[in-house]
Amino acid sequence: MRLSHFDYYAPTTVADAISLLQSKPDAHVMAGGTDLLIKMRHAGLKLKTIISLKSISGLNTIAFDETKGLTIGATALLADVAIHPDILKYYPTVAQAARGTANVQVRNMGTVIGNLCNASPAADNAPTLLAMGAEVHIQGPSGKRTVPLDQFFKGPGMTALEPAEIVTAVHVPRLTPHSGTAYISLSARGQLDCSAVGVATMVTLKEKVCEDTRIFVGACGPTPIRVPKAETIVRGKELTDDLIDQAGVQASAEATPITDVRASADYREKMVAVLTRRVLSQARKRASE
Amino acid sequence: MKKDFSIVGKSVPRNDGKAKATGTATYTDDIKLPGMLHGKILRSPFPHARILNIDTSRAASLPGVKCVITGEDTPKIKYGNWRLFPDTQDEYPLAIDKVRFIGDEVAAVAAVDADTAEEALELIKVDYEELPGIFDIDSAIKEGAPVLHDYCPGNISVNRKIHYGDIEKAFAESDYVREDVFNVHAVSPAYLEPCAAVAQCDLDGRITLWTSTQVPYIVQCLLASTMGMRENDVRVIKPFVGGGFGGKMELRTWEFCAAFIAKKTGRPVKFTMTREEEFLAGRRRHAMKLYSKVGFKKDGTLTGKDLRIYLDGGGYNAMGPTATFLCGTFGAMLYRYPNYRFWGQHVYTNKPPASAMRGFGAPQSLFATESQMNIAAEELGIDPIELRIKNAQVTGDEIPDVATISSCGFIEALQKAAEMSGWKEKRYSPKPGQGIGIGCYSFISGGVFNWFNTQFPFSAAEVRVFDDGTAHLLTMAADIGQGCDTVLKQILAEELGLKMEDIRITSADTSTTPQADLGAWGSRLTMMNGNAVLDAAKKIKAQLFGAVSARQNLNVIHELGCKDGMVFPKSRPDRGIPFGEAVAMAQKANRGEPLVERGYYTPRDKGLVTPAFSFGAQISEVEVDKDTGVVRVKKFWTAHDCGTVINQMAVEGQLEGSIQMGLGYALSEQFVMEDGKTLNTNFLDYKMPNAMDVPPSEVAHIETYEPEGPMGAKEAGEGLAIPTAPAIADAVHHATGYRCKDLPITPEKILAGKKD
Ligand SMILES: Cc1cc2nc3c(=O)[nH]c(=O)nc-3n(C[C@H](O)[C@H](O)[C@H](O)COP(=O)(O)OP(=O)(O)OC[C@H]3O[C@@H](n4cnc5c(N)ncnc54)[C@H](O)[C@@H]3O)c2cc1C
């Protein structure tokens, strides 16, 4: 399909980007463009204006603070997140999800925030960040605000962003002691592929008891979804294999997958149980290490 | 018969390697000519519809648009590769009256740039009357099914039967008879270079066409006939081509449209397909439904086979007739079937036409053969490799009506593959979740049956030699990435005793390279063009030897040789003369005429199928995740017989590429289709394995010497693409108890079919 002709802006401050967005209501912001340009070329998205965020200095910062946790800037590349030493050390699952997104070329262009703002239900970076209780920093015409990531996704391609708002960063709190995370996704081709289904969890243990958990399922609903009843099954109880199995079955019941070119609803549903089981036991292991 | 070779048999880097690796290789889409227009094709949105009216006026008046054509503007001449049987030629360059699949070509626009051409497509108004569509074999052959082509009321366009021995008697006398139905799916050749063509018309009305094709000669002839021109007023040039795998072996719409519009406008025209067009409407490997019945004696001796195949042909014949013939031929290869019956039928459906694709009917036919061999082995309680060895074809075997096998290393390949892989240990003491399986193949080294009805030799080569010690090889053979330019140069260098860098090659230009060559398909080039090159080289040598013998006053009993840039009497190597000097002498002896010779090859007295057969065995080891059904192939071991290996690296490259394709065919590639529409038209959702998915592999070349082949060589291009799917299927069965009879082997099928 034809790429429509568009104007291209590369503002150097967030404020400039926001006022450009205000003056050009049909404009889209672009980070790596690995979703946006493909939609323009292949999905009929006709844009008159693109506002690139890549010239805004400091927006690609990845910052880690012992107490405040991790902040990933809007233009930080998937490739950089995947190998950042602090992320590898303190947020291994966040790094793993970034490393498991797409391929080398796309990771060298694309961003974690772009992956979130694109709001695909299958976005590989969403489930882990959701499970870890991340929040997004938003800046817009009426100032700054912070939105928990689990309130950010509104539907396929839809987010809580208001007109002319930009996500400037995602913030991930530090894992509490005795906590572990895990993310597993499945796709039809090897490991490096768009996921047909994915599950992430964070588990906090007290001795053998699961003090808290958050479980999120990707590609099985209009947004990545939380499976609260599955969480209830394990929360506050000793995290046995048997209980983990039950949680898997429950997660599968809570997921609402559809059949599409990547997998059938039936297979996805079954896999939610398998993956939930696997991430819970992985996270349990990590939490007790 | 083996010879000591200097260049043949070595790992010689490819001719085109540097150009491709550095990005300087010029593909068709890289060609830019002054004043060139850009073309786009309007495609049918319906799987089956009558065209009532086409209004191109708005498109034609869009600024920048220079030409809009529909079928009505063209000479309306049908084409198809099977010229020998004009009934099979069922395609027009642009639809006349009817469209038969989503993506069928309806109109073409040429404009000053591609964007304008594309915009113009949206302004063409086509009134269609939708017709009921048929999307699978069973509905297509039902009584009263909608008819795609008026000439073919039952939708079966090709019938092929083979019968020898007495099959019913054979089954009656068998101890064990096995009957299965297999369904194999369509896949895309997925060559990395989408099709493209650039045409230019000179002031005399002659056409030059640069096109991404495997068959310059066929395109030349068919373009001429559809344009109503003389063949030699059309010149086809093949630039660098990024793969074909069978998908580029016919005249195609854009080639016609580029030429037609160039002639009409006087301006050069380029068409380049997008990946989406390729997936939506491009050629595919045939989906097939195979009913196979085999009989055995208790001891494992094969008694016969009855094979019934329906090919899902899509909207047009394309290369379907050949696939129909060949899947029957392949059904009787590899093992000794004293009794054999085959009936193949090619069926029209409202889907993109299937055509040639690497293996040309063999991956499908032999998937059934090999799966049934494995099933039978299990049920007879015989090791699958033993069962194969018991029934394996050997040198000297005759396949009725096909040929006598003049070289065969199948048994050695089976033994070697078993040994390399640790078959016994892994097959009989498997680890949980792991499995090992086997698949084998035999393939043709070029085809004999002259469906194109050419009056030329099947292949030709011209060799020019010069007094500076260099040579120039001209051939119409099409290097499409498989490496024949390199292999042909090696053969020439070997024969003339020159170095690779002494030889210039000009290939695949129908007006300057010797006529003709049927193209790059059926694994024919090393065999057929290699023989033509050898023939020319031998004639050159005869001339050189005459001149050198005269100059050296040699006794007539002396035989001469060429090696290391010298021409010398074999028994007196010290009396050699440098190659260039010998050339000068020969020229002087012949009134200064340049030393040029032509060589040809056409298989004769070799039956109707092929002059030579390759063989091989492949073993794969897999690990299956019992909860997710995901298969990971851990390793492949391949032992194969391609006769003399001309270029180690090239053969290994063919093997790696074959494994990648076979892996996709077995596990992940498929078209997701809904009512004739292909839904996964990009590489994100068409799951072709990438480099990281390809497991390690080990190879053993079982070298035989094929008397019909150049320096003993036969094919290594397509056969290797066959064994991977059955080998994986067998390994998955070994690991899970699930026996796949309908490809691909998806996790869902494994979960549904596994036995814990
Ligand atoms: C070959 C290929 C493979 C892929 N594989 C995967 C995969 O395995 N897993 C996966 O999850 N994804 C995959 N993707 C999708 C894509 O690469 C990722 O979603 C990537 O992270 C997007 O980042 P980007 O910076 O390129 O986003 P962009 O394309 O720049 O933006 C995406 C969307 O978010 C908006 N946006 C971007 N930044 C902001 C911001 N700061 N504020 C507000 N809105 C913003 C844009 O307007 C746009 O709508 C793949 C894509 C390709 C082409």
TrEMBL record, chain A:
Domain FAD-binding PCMH-type: 1-177
Pfam families reported for this sequence: CO_deh_flav_C (PF03450), FAD_binding_5 (PF00941)
SMART domains membership: CO_deh_flav_C (SM01092)
Keyword Transferase: no
A GO molecular-function descriptor: oxidoreductase activity
Entry superkingdom: Bacteria
InterPro entries (alphabetical): CO_DH_flav_C, CO_DH_flav_C_dom_sf, Diverse_Substr_Oxidored, FAD-bd_PCMH, FAD-bd_PCMH-like_sf, FAD-bd_PCMH_sub1, FAD-bd_PCMH_sub2, Mopterin_DH_FAD-bd
PROSITE patterns documented for this protein: FAD_PCMH
The entry's keywords: FAD, Flavoprotein
Listed name of the protein: Dehydrogenase domain-containing protein
Source organism per UniProt: Desulfonema magnum
Automatic annotation (TrEMBL), chain B:
SUPFAM superfamilies assigned: CO dehydrogenase molybdoprotein N-domain-like, Molybdenum cofactor-binding domain
Record's protein name: Aldehyde oxidoreductase family protein
Gene3D superfamilies registered for this protein in UniProt: Aldehyde oxidase/xanthine dehydrogenase, a/b hammerhead, Aldehyde oxidase/xanthine dehydrogenase, molybdopterin binding domain
GO terms for MF: iron ion binding; oxidoreductase activity
Organism for this UniProt entry: Desulfonema magnum
UniProt KW ATP-binding keyword: no
PANTHER family hit by this protein: ALDEHYDE OXIDASE 1-RELATED (PTHR11908:SF132), XANTHINE DEHYDROGENASE (PTHR11908)
This protein's UniProt keywords: Molybdenum, Oxidoreductase
Domain Aldehyde oxidase/xanthine dehydrogenase a/b hammerhead, residue spans: 22-132
InterPro entries, alphabetized: Ald_Oxase/Xan_DH_a/b (IPR000674), Ald_Oxase/Xan_DH_a/b_sf (IPR036856), Ald_Oxase/xanthine_DH-like (IPR016208), AldOxase/xan_DH_MoCoBD1 (IPR008274), AldOxase/xan_DH_MoCoBD2 (IPR046867), AldOxase/xan_DH_Mopterin-bd_sf (IPR037165)
